[in-house]
Amino acid sequence: MIALSSLYHSPTKASALLCALCASLVGGSFFVQHVLLVEPCPLCIIQRITFAALALVFLSIALLGQRPRTQRGLLGLALLLVLLGGGVAAYQTQLQLAPPAASAACTPSLSYMLDTLPVTDVIRQLFQAHGDCSDTSFKILGLTLAQISLGIFSVLLLWLVPALRRQVPSA
How far apart are CA 122 and CA 100, in angstroms? Predict the structure, then answer.
């Protein structure tokens, strides 16, 4: 078993573990969608894509992490993705705590919007309050998936900031 201090001081080892975590989250989201038949909202899709991108970045760090400059750049990219995903999860959590009016209870799916609207309109639609993004009917241990995602993005942020600080060369 890898010691926690070893993970803290080795972005390469920790990144392999974080890659597995992010890949598991993406797999879990497909399980929830296709087996439990819970249709994801557009904000959920963005979080899924962010976790998939993070899995690839963490895999790259694990494989190419011996080069300090490459590792620093990839850790910076991971930080940007975590901030993006965390922002989306925080926004969705806020929507769930104060859902929109009943008139906004239905919205088209992301695939339908991509097929029928220009990309700029789709992006604008994603960040407007929609009823299905505020749905709280599916919970795990009393938490919505957005709240769980926000917690995971927060933990990743708590690991990434010190990891990046350790990578900054002292002058």
Answer: 19
